[in-house]
């Protein structure tokens, strides 16, 4: 059968997109060589040629749109602010208010989106929750949490972001129910305690502020953490962090407390609380800083950096900030 | 009347009331809620609804949620756009027609990218709007060039699936 009428399979579309990206990021002789390879690939099957033509059409349409838009950086800014507002409303009004109504599964068919969760925070937002068992929770910026309490356990699922937990007495339950937090790379069980967990796509980090926590990392043995301990676990190993550059629970008091941290790392951390882009020039990326910073006045924070380090902050739009050598 | 239309009429009688209430609660505006309730049923008519009987409430809420988000997006874009215009000197304010056109474009772009992770959206917009090279985007976002490529790849695939219905 000829394939002319068949839609390109997902794998073919993805291959075409790969070609497009390779072509875009190449130059000179490389560029020509990749062009030849693409032509050969397109000639192999009609579905290849169709997928390639569609990618070209799609990116062409984008270019047309961009040409007609107002100034690009203004458009970036407008889109960023609007999308933030939509996310905020969606989280507030559609999820939290609308959970009782069925059909959420239909609408939220796309996997792993933060607003699938019971509780979410937007960029720069923090949220305090008190659960039925008396457990007190702080969700940090851009985080998502599910709560699944059963007669046998109090289960929390951190889907993304960062959480601080102060376990409650659970006096309403006839018998003791363990409080457990699952995250991407393992499970933490409270042993009478206050602790925080942070999800970084490639690893998770647990810090114990009070009491003890049992940690069951995926792919590593169970261990008990004492007060003051911080551990990173990534699905194969777990390692203690002896001198964290970031205080693990300062954020819950609206602060960023850092010790001898690289500027690039600091700005990356700051970016979690801002909508948009925070860049750092490579020449100053290795500067170090220590101190305690208030997160609620970031303009002031950035001015302070300019005063204390040999850098200047360039902001093209509210959405786009970059640190450069002074 | 075709079977579908009969089904929708009885659906309308049974569900219009609470749907309107549901929308009013979310939009805090009864007039807009009435409009969107109407639009929800219109959408039903233009859709092929083989499974209409199974969970009409869920289906209606699904459609209504989509319309609510579209409505929020449009008004959020209008507000953001107006703020940007307000910062311009008066003689540089574009004509109403140009403004409307720009808003429509922004809306199309925002709708297209809806549902992408924030970082993916940003990487893609920096590429398309900012015209930055992958390495430059990587520096801006503080990630590797490889992961910028991954984000752009995701975004393109997402747009492809929306743009070409058979995907």
From TrEMBL, chain A:
<dbReference type="InterPro" id="IPR006860">
    <property type="entry name" value="FecR"/>
</dbReference>
<dbReference type="Pfam" id="PF04773">
    <property type="entry name" value="FecR"/>
</dbReference>
<protein>
    <submittedName>
        <fullName>Anti-sigma factor FoxR</fullName>
    </submittedName>
</protein>
<feature type="domain" description="FecR protein">
    <location>
        <begin position="118"/>
        <end position="213"/>
    </location>
</feature>
<dbReference type="InterPro" id="IPR012373">
    <property type="entry name" value="Ferrdict_sens_TM"/>
</dbReference>
From TrEMBL, chain B:
<dbReference type="InterPro" id="IPR013249">
    <property type="entry name" value="RNA_pol_sigma70_r4_t2"/>
</dbReference>
<feature type="domain" description="RNA polymerase sigma factor 70 region 4 type 2">
    <location>
        <begin position="107"/>
        <end position="159"/>
    </location>
</feature>
<dbReference type="InterPro" id="IPR036388">
    <property type="entry name" value="WH-like_DNA-bd_sf"/>
</dbReference>
<feature type="domain" description="RNA polymerase sigma-70 region 2">
    <location>
        <begin position="11"/>
        <end position="75"/>
    </location>
</feature>
<dbReference type="InterPro" id="IPR014284">
    <property type="entry name" value="RNA_pol_sigma-70_dom"/>
</dbReference>
<dbReference type="InterPro" id="IPR007627">
    <property type="entry name" value="RNA_pol_sigma70_r2"/>
</dbReference>
<dbReference type="InterPro" id="IPR013325">
    <property type="entry name" value="RNA_pol_sigma_r2"/>
</dbReference>
<comment type="similarity">
    <text>Belongs to the sigma-70 factor family. ECF subfamily.</text>
</comment>
<dbReference type="Pfam" id="PF08281">
    <property type="entry name" value="Sigma70_r4_2"/>
</dbReference>
<dbReference type="InterPro" id="IPR039425">
    <property type="entry name" value="RNA_pol_sigma-70-like"/>
</dbReference>
<keyword id="KW-0731">Sigma factor</keyword>
<dbReference type="Pfam" id="PF04542">
    <property type="entry name" value="Sigma70_r2"/>
</dbReference>
<keyword id="KW-0804">Transcription</keyword>
<protein>
    <submittedName>
        <fullName>ECF sigma factor FoxI</fullName>
    </submittedName>
</protein>
<dbReference type="InterPro" id="IPR013324">
    <property type="entry name" value="RNA_pol_sigma_r3/r4-like"/>
</dbReference>
<keyword id="KW-0805">Transcription regulation</keyword>
């Amino acid at each position: 059968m000829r394939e002319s009428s068949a839609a390109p399979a997902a794998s073919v579309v993805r291959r075409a997109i790969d070609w497009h990206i390779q072509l875009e990021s190449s130059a000179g002789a490389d560029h020509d060589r990749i062009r030849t390879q693409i032509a050969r690939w397109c000639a192999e099957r009609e579905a290849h040629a169709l997928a390639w033509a569609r990618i070209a059409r799609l990116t062409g349409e984008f270019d047309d749109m961009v040409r007609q838009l107002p100034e690009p950086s203004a458009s970036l800014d407008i889109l960023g602010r609007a999308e933030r507002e939509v996310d905020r409303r969606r989280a507030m009004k559609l999820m939290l208010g609308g959970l009782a109504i069925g059909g959420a599964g239909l609408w939220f068919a796309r996997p792993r989106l933060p607003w699938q969760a019971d509780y979410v925070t937007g960029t720069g937002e923090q949220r305090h929750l008190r659960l039925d068992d008396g457990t007190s929770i702080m969700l940090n910026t851009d985080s998502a949490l599910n709560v699944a309490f059963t007669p046998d356990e109090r289960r929390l699922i951190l889907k993304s972001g960062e959480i601080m937990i102060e376990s409650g007495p659970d006096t309403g339950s006839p018998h003791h129910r363990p409080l457990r937090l699952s995250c991407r790379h393992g499970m933490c069980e409270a042993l009478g305690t206050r602790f925080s967990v942070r999800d970084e796509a490639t690893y998770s980090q647990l810090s114990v502020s009070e009491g003890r926590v049992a940690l069951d990392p995926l792919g590593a043995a169970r261990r008990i953490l004492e007060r003051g301990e911080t551990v990173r676990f990534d699905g194969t190993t777990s390692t203690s962090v002896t001198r964290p550059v970031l205080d693990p629970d300062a954020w819950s008091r609206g602060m960023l407390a850092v010790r001898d941290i690289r500027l690039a790392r600091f700005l990356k951390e700051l970016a979690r609380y801002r909508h948009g882009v925070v860049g750092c020039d490579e020449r100053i990326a290795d500067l170090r800083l220590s101190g305690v910073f208030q997160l609620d006045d970031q303009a002031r924070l950035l001015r302070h950096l300019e005063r204390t380090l040999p850098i200047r902050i360039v902001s093209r739009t509210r959405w786009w900030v970059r640190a450069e050598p002074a | 009347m075709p079977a579908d239309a009969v089904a929708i009429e009885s659906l309308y009688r049974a569900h219009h009331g609470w749907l309107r209430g549901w929308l009013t609660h979310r939009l805090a505006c009864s007039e807009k809620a009435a409009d969107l309730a109407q639009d929800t049923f219109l959408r039903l008519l233009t859709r092929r609804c083989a499974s209409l009987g199974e969970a009409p409430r869920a289906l209606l809420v699904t459609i209504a949620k989509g319309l609510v988000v579209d409505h929020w997006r449009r008004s959020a874009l209008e507000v953001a756009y107006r703020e940007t215009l307000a910062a311009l000197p008066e003689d540089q304010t574009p004509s109403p027609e140009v403004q409307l056109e720009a808003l429509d474009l922004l809306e199309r772009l925002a709708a297209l990218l809806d549902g992408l992770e924030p970082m993916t959206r940003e990487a893609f917009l920096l590429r398309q709007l900012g015209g930055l090279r992958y390495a430059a985007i990587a520096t801006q976002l503080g990630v590797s060039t490889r992961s910028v490529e991954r984000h752009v790849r995701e975004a393109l695939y997402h747009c492809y699936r929306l743009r070409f219905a058979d995907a």
